[in-house]
Amino acid sequence: MKTAVITGATSGIGKSTSIRFALEGFKLILCGRRTDRLEQLKTELSVETSVHILSFDVRNREEVMKQIASIPEEFKDIDVLVNNAGNAHGLDPIQNGNIDDWDAMLDINVKGLLYVSKAIIPGMLEKQSGHIINIGSTAGKEVYPNGNVYCASKHAVDAINQGMRIDLNGNGIRVGAVNPGLTQTEFSDVRFKGDANKAEKVYQGFQALQPEDIADIIHFVVTRPYHVNIADLTVMPTAQASSTILDKKA
Ligand code: NDP
Ligand code: 8X3
Questions:
Q1: Atom 19 in ligand 1: which residue has the minimum CA distance?
Q2: Known catalytic residues?
Q3: CATH architecture assigned to 3-235
Q4: Cβ–ligand 1 contact at 183 (below 6 Å)
Q5: If I label 46, which of 6, 52, 150, 174 is the partner at 20 to 30 A Cα–Cα?
Q6: Does ligand 2 lie within 6 Å of residue 91's CB atom?
Q7: Matching Pfam families, A to Z (predicted)?
Q8: Rounded CA gap, 94 and 122, in Å?
Q9: 153 lines ligand 2 (CB under 6 A)
């Protein structure tokens, strides 16, 4: 039975991936800040598999190291890391950007991903085996108006994904990115700071991807034979041709 760590398991893509992995028999270490949601998920998924939860903010370097070090013996043999925790804060032209939003996006999406990876990679190196899935975005492939710093953070994930793959090559560790387009989660609620109207409008008039669609793809990626590494996978709703071209009739 394989063990997977999933960050950002409390909602959206991370939650759906946790559910899918549980149904497919993975042992799970689920991470996020909202402890109540983690506990609820643990209760639900424990029917299917063994679940350990870790509540921490990926921005807190010491806490990340402490929490990963605290993983009990029976969960310590980690096969899969899904670096999913992340979000956007604001959608403003660069000249109006809020510096706290910039810090949050770079600290969570880039530095948080690095801290969690730094804590998990030594165990994978020791056993010369593992699989790291970095959740990037179409925003890591192209920049769209007002997306500036969020797009920069996801371009950084794209670069880190490539760098990890190069540096870990030869150690039995697979590294790949899954880059979703518009996916209906709590992403836009966070981006627009709880403005439900604005958030809803993002997904109106077309069929957005659902978090289960991405979970399905992540499960596909981690279940390929060992010699197959899906290095970089981009997926969009059929209605979406790019970050700026969206067929609202679809
Ligand atoms: P959600 O807002 O639904 O989920 C985000 C998850 O990240 C939550 O579980 C949240 O948990 C966790 N998280 C956020 N900040 C922190 C933090 N500081 N420390 C620890 N955990 C944190 O959004 P999505 O599911 O859509 O986002 C998941 C990933 O997918 C992100 O990396 C996002 O950039 C990416 N993505 C999303 C797309 C979309 O259109 N939705 C498209 C492309 C990529 P908690 O708040 O409990 O800490
Ligand atoms: C999330 C997709 O287009 O809102 O990464 O940036 S988008």
A1: 57
A2: 150
A3: 3-Layer(aba) Sandwich (3.40)
A4: yes
A5: 174
A6: no
A7: adh_short
A8: 38
A9: no
pTM as predicted: 0.98
Cβ-count burial 207-230 (b if 16+ within 10 Å, e if not): ebbbbebbbebbbebbeeeeeebb
Atom of ligand 2 nearest to the CA of 181: 2
Q: Which atom of ligand 1 is nearest to the CA of 58?
A: 19
Would you kindly state where each structural domain of the chain is located, as residue ranges? 3-235
For residues 198 and 192, the answer to whether their CB atoms sit within 8 Å is yes
Backbone torsions φ then ψ of 41, nearest 5 degrees: -65, -40
Spatial separation of the C-alpha atoms in residues 209 and 153, rounded to whole Å: 21
Å from CA of 232 to ligand 2 middle: 17
Residue with the nearest Cα to atom 4 of ligand 2?
182
57, 81, 132, 161, 209 from 60: Cα distances, Å: 6, 18, 21, 21, 31
- CB of 140 within 6 A of ligand 1: the answer is no
The residue whose CA has the least distance to atom 12 of ligand 1 is 8
Tens of pLDDT, residue by residue, the chain (250 residues): 999 999 999 999 999 999 999 999 999 999 999 999 999 999 999 999 999 999 999 999 999 999 999 999 999 999 999 999 999 999 999 999 999 999 999 999 999 999 999 999 999 999 999 999 999 999 999 999 999 999 999 999 999 999 999 999 999 999 999 999 999 999 999 999 999 999 999 999 999 999 999 999 999 999 999 999 999 999 999 999 999 999 987 6
d(Cα 222, Cα 113) in Å, to the nearest integer? 19
Please state the ipTM of this predicted complex.
0.99
Q: How far is the CA of 86 from the centre of ligand 1 (A)?
A: 4
